[in-house]
C-alpha cells in the first residue's frame, strides 16, 4: 500500500466498518441503559408499591375534608426515616396537590393527571408504571399510591414518588463519576482496537488488488515488455490467486499476439518489397521485347518472332511467381484445408521424376529412386506432397552439373517413413544453411540472373510439410552435395 488515500478501496472499507461499529456500540449502550432503567424501576416499584397503603393505615391524615397539618407533618416526618429517595404528596380526589414534603418553590404542578393513579389502583397495572412528578412540568416517575377513605368516603390520595429528586441527583453523580467515563473509555478503546484490526485486515485483503493494479499500470507504461506478475502464495483468497493467474495468462497471450502481429506485419512488408523487386525484372523484360516487336511492326519491318518467345517466357515467369506468392499467402493463413489419404509414395515420386527426366537428361544428371517398392503407403495430402517433391527435385536439378546424381530414398522406420532427397551438386555454403527456408532467401550459390526463381520454393515446402506434422531438415557440403530429410506417417 502506498500512502493512505481516502478514495482507495482500503480506506473506504475501513471508514465504513469503523462508523458502523461506533453506531452499533452507541445503540448497544442506549438499549442496555433503557433495559437497565426499566428493570430497576420495576424492582423498586414492586418493593414499595404498597408503601402508601401502610402509611394510610397508620392513622387519619384528614380532619373533615381538609388535611390535618399536624397528622400530615408527623406522617411525613416518620416517612423520612424510610430514606431520602421518597417524596410525599397528599392529593385531593381530583388530583390537586394539597400537601407535600418539599419547599414550595420545588413544586411545578399543583394539579396532576389521574390516569396513571387510577390504573395503579385498578389492581391490574403492569409495572413499572410511571405517574406524574409534581416537581417537573412533564416528567413521569415510578410511584406508590393509596386512597385515603373515612367512613367510606374518599378524602384524597397519599401519593409517593419513589426514587425522587435526590435519587436522580445521586444517580447522575454516580453516572458522571464512574459509569459514563468507563463506558466512554471502553467505547473509544474498542473503536481504536477495531480501527487497527480492520486496517490490518483490509491492508491484507487489498494488498493483492493494489499489486494487481500496479501490474496493470506497468503493462500500460511498458507495453508488452512488462514482466509477468509474481504469484502471491500468501494471497488471502483463492479467488485473488485465480485473478492474478488470469491476469498473467491474459498479458502473456497479449504479448504473444502482439509479437505475432508484429512479425506478420514485418513479413508482409518484406514480401511486398520482394514481390515488387522480383516482378520488376521479368515485367520490364516483357514490356521491352513487346515494345521492340511493335516498333519493328510499325516501321513496316518484319518483327523478330524470338521477341515474342522471350516476352512469353517472361510472362510465364511472372505467372509462376504470382502463383507461388498466392500459394505461400494461402499456406500462411491459419485455415488450410487438408485432404489426407493413403498415398503410394514411390509412384508419386516416380511421376515427379518423370516430369524432370527430359531436363535432367539434357543436363546429363541421373535421377534415382530407392526402393521402388509400390507397397509403401503414407497418409498425406497428395497434391501438397507432390509440390514438396517438385520443389526439392527442381532445386536439386538446378544446382547439379553433368554427371551428378539426384536420389530420392525411403527408409522404413517403425513409426514413420523417412524420406531423403539428395544430390551430388554444388552444395550450400554453411552460412546460408540456416536461412534457406526463409521466404525470398537465395543462397550465395544461386545461379546469377536467374530471375525466374524468387526463393519461395523452400518456404512453401517447409509449410507444406508442417501441415503434415513433419519437419524438414537439411545438410550440405559445398561441392559435395545436399540432402533434405523429412518423415511421413504410415497409412
Ligand atoms: N539442392 C540444392 N543445392 C544447392 N542449393 C540449394 C538447393 N536447394 C536450395 N538451394 C539454395 O537455397 C535457396 C532457396 O531455395 P528455394 O527453393 O527456396 O528458392 P529458389 O529455388 O531460389 O526459388 P523458387 O523455389 O522460388 O523458384 C536457393 O536459391 C539455393 O541457393
Ligand atoms: Mg526452389
Query: For this structure, what is the CATH homologous superfamily of the domain at 338-489?
Result: Histidine kinase-like ATPase, C-terminal domain
Sheet of most strands? 5 strands, antiparallel
Gross morphology is rod-shaped
Distance between the termini: 63 Å
Total E-strand runs: 14
Identify every distinct bound molecule in the structure, by name, code or SMILES. Answer: adenosine-5'-triphosphate, magnesium ion
What is the CATH topology assignment of the domain at 338-489? Answer: Heat Shock Protein 90
Q: Cα-atom Rg, whole angstroms? A: 56 Å
The low-confidence runs, each spanning 5 or more residues with pLDDT under 50, are none
CATH class of the domain at 338-489: Alpha Beta
What helical percentage do the residues reach? 40-55%
The main sheet orders its strands as 4-3-7-6-5
Q: From N to C, what is the helix and strand string?
A: HHEEHEEHEEEHHHEHEEHEEHEE
Characteristics:
binds adenosine-5'-triphosphate; 10 helices; Beta-Lactamase; rod-shaped; binds magnesium ion; 5-stranded mixed beta sheet; 491 residues; alpha+beta
Amino acid at each position: 500500500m502506498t500512502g493512505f488515500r481516502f478514495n482507495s478501496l482500503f480506506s473506504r472499507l475501513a471508514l465504513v466498518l469503523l462508523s458502523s461499529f461506533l453506531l452499533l456500540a452507541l445503540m448497544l449502550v442506549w438499549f442496555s441503559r433503557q433495559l437497565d432503567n426499566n428493570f430497576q424501576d420495576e424492582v423498586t416499584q414492586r418493593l414499595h408499591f404498597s408503601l402508601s397503603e401502610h402509611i394510610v393505615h397508620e392513622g387519619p391524615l384528614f380532619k373533615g375534608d381538609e388535611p390535618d397539618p399536624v397528622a400530615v407533618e408527623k406522617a411525613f416526618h416518620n416517612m423520612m426515616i424510610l430514606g431520602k429517595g421518597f417524596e410525599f404528596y397528599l392529593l385531593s380526589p381530583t388530583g390537586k396537590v394539597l400537601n407535600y414534603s418539599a419547599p414550595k418553590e420545588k413544586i411545578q404542578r399543583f394539579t396532576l393527571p389521574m390516569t396513571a393513579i387510577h390504573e395503579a389502583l385498578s389492581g391490574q397495572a403492569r409495572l413499572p408504571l410511571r405517574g406524574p412528578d409534581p416537581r417537573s412540568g412533564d416528567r413521569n416517575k415510578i410511584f406508590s399510591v393509596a386512597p385515603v377513605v373515612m367512613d367510606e368516603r374518599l378524602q384524597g390520595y397519599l401519593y409517593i414518588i419513589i426514587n425522587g429528586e435526590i435519587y436522580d441527583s445521586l444517580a447522575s453523580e454516580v453516572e458522571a463519576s464512574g459509569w459514563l467515563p468507563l463506558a466512554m473509555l471502553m467505547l473509544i478503546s474498542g473503536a481504536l482496537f477495531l480501527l487497527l484490526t480492520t486496517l490490518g485486515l483490509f491492508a491484507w485483503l487489498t494488498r493483492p488488488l493494489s499489486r494487481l493494479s500496479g501490474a496493470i499500470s506497468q503493462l500500460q507504461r511498458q507495453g508488452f515488455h512488462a514482466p509477468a506478475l509474481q504469484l502471491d502464495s500468501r494471497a488471502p483468497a483463492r479467488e485473488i490467486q485465480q485473478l492474478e493467474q488470469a491476469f498473467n495468462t491474459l498479458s502473456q497471450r497479449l504479448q504473444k499476439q502482439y509479437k505475432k502481429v508484429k512479425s506478420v506485419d514485418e513479413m508482409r512488408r518484406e514480401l511486398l518489397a520482394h514481390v515488387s523487386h522480383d516482378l520488376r525484372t521479368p515485367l520490364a523484360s516483357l514490356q521491352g521485347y513487346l515494345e521492340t516487336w511493335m516498333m519493328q511492326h510499325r516501321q513496316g519491318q518484319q518483327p523478330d518472332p524470338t521477341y515474342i518467345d522471350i516476352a512469353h517466357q517472361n510472362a510465364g515467369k511472372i505467372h509462376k511467381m504470382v502463383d507461388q506468392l498466392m500459394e505461400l499467402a494461402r499456406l500462411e493463413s491459419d485455415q488450410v484445408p487438408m485432404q489426407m489419404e493413403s498415398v503410394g509414395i514411390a509412384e508419386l515420386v516416380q511421376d515427379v521424376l518423370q516430369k524432370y527426366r527430359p531436363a535432367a537428361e539434357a543436363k546429363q544428371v541421373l535421377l534415382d529412386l530407392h526402393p521402388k517398392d509400390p507397397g509403401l503407403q503414407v497418409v498425406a495430402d497428395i497434391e501438397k506432397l507432390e509440390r514438396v517433391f517438385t520443389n526439392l527435385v527442381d532445386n536439386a536439378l538446378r544446382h547439379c552439373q553433368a554427371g551428378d546424381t539426384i536420389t530420392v530414398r525411403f527408409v522404413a522406420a517403425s513409426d514413420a517413413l523417412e524420406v531423403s532427397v539428395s544430390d551430388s551438386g554444388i552444395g550450400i555454403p554453411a552460412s546460408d544453411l540456416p536461412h534457406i527456408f526463409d521466404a525470398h532467401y537465395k543462397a550465395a550459390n544461386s545461379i546469377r540472373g536467374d530471375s525466374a526463381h524468387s526463393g519461395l520454393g523452400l518456404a512453401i515446402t517447409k509449410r507444406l510439410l508442417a501441415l503434415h506434422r513433419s519437419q524438414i531438415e537439411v545438410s550440405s557440403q559445398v561441392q559435395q552435395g545436399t540432402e533434405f530429410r523429412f518423415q511421413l506417417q504410415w497409412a
